Amino acid sequence: MKRDYYEILGVVRGVSEDDLKKAYRKAAVQYHPDRNPGDKTAEEKFKEVNEAYQVLSDPKRRSAYDQFGHSAFQGGGFEQGFSSATFTDIFDNIFGDIFGASGGGGPSNGVDLRYNLEITFEEAAFGVERQITFEKAAPCSPCQGSGAKPGTKPKTCRNCKGTGQIRLNQGFFTLARTCTSCFGRGTTIEEKCPECRGKGRVQRPHSVSVKIPAGVDAGQRLRLRGEGEIGESGDHFGDLFVVIHVKEHALFKRDQESIHLEFPISFVQAALGAELEVPILGGASSMKVPAGTQSGEVFRLKGKGIKRLNGSGYGDQFVRILVETPTNLSGKQRDLLREFEKMATAESQPGITSFLNKLRDLL
């Protein structure tokens, strides 16, 4: 007896289309003949998996199967058998070029490239335009990208008749594999171009201008379409992905659109209060510190942060106050501080007073 189709794919009844496709992909890859050469058991399971998916991926067939099981496809009254052409389409749509099962010997999509670009903290904040140069494959001039010696032309592949694929019949379905003679190009080269040695491409320096928007952050990528390498067929270029790296700043730290700054002030400024000139990106900003400010307190400078990359406005800058304890005191300074200590009251030292009261309660 035939196994239950849902059991074959390892799913339950009512499974969504997306989950059904994922289960099929996993099973098909596991049992594919290319991964299990000469394994008859794997081959049979591969056929079983494809039969199950062909039924369950079709709403009409799935409904009939859910009501009548395998008997829905026996005798009259409902579509019988399984089309090899239909299965090939399903397999191609899901797997693309995996196992050489793409839809034909068409042009390749080119090759994507990656470029690591380091910029300063300020350039990331305000934006910048940079010229970058790198090596990439470009069409060979002498052979105009054909790979054939100038004066000659590539010839149609005898093995695949120019299709770039070899189709193999396996039972009720057909598998398409990349032609091993022309590697999917559909043509072969008898006399190779001496410049590119038959590849049709050569490495050349390439320069391009990159506009980096204000607010870009470390790790983000900029995509420049068509600035990658040309594909094997010489018809399409890939894309260039510029990965941003940002140098550390001597003063500022960044958290998305916010900037953080640690700002040291004197003991007197913290006690009496002060109006400070605080550094911000591109300049300075006035900030009032009230009397009695404690070390570690944070103040916000609204709108002084980084421009929002995908929105309007700016983030904020947060200033963390660090009260510096005096060192290397003179004798007179020591005497004054001792005098100050004698005059200190509970109200002038609320933190110490609160701690001592809690400690007294514990003891």
Brief overview:
By secondary structure, the protein is α+β, with helices and mostly antiparallel strands. The protein contains 9 helices and 15 strands. Mean pLDDT is 81; it is low at 76-108.
Name the features.
363 residues, alpha+beta, Helix Hairpins, Chaperone, DNAj Protein, Chain A, HSP40/DNAj peptide-binding domain, 3 domains, four-stranded mixed sheet, three-stranded mixed sheet, 15 strands, elongated
What does this structure look like?
The structure is a single chain. With 363 residues, the protein is of the alpha+beta class. It has helices at 5-9, 17-31, 40-56, 59-68, 84-95, 121-126, 267-272, 331-343, 350-362, and strands spanning 113-119, 128-139, 155-156, 165-170, 173-178, 187-188, 201-212, 221-224, 240-246, 252-255, 258-266, 274-280, 283-289, 298-301, 317-324. The protein folds into three domains: 5-73, DnaJ domain (Helix Hairpins), CATH 1.10.287; 113-246, Chaperone, DNAj Protein, Chain A, CATH 2.10.230.10; 252-362, Urease metallochaperone UreE, N-terminal domain (HSP40/DNAj peptide-binding domain, Sandwich), CATH 2.60.260.20. The protein has nine helices and 15 strands. Helix 2 runs antiparallel to helix 3. The longest helix is centred in the N-terminal third of the chain and has 17 residues, at 40-56.
Q: What's the gyration radius in Å? A: 36 Å
Span between termini: 83 Å
CATH topology of the largest domain: Chaperone, DNAj Protein, Chain A
**Mind summarizing the main beta sheet?**
4 strands, mixed
Strand order of the largest sheet: 10-11-15-14
**Uncertain ranges:** 76-108
**Could you state the CATH homologous superfamily of the largest domain?**
Heat shock protein DnaJ, cysteine-rich domain
Number of helices: 9
So, CATH architecture of the largest domain? Answer: Ribbon
* Structural classification: alpha+beta
Number of DSSP strand runs: 15
Briefly, what CATH class of the largest domain?
Answer: Mainly Beta
Percentage of residues in strands: 25-35%
Q: Output mean pLDDT.
A: 81
Q: Domains counted in the coordinates: how many?
A: 3
Gross morphology is elongated
What letter string, H or E per element, gives the SSE order?
Answer: HHHHHEHEEEEEEEEEEHEEEEHH
Helicity level: 25-40%
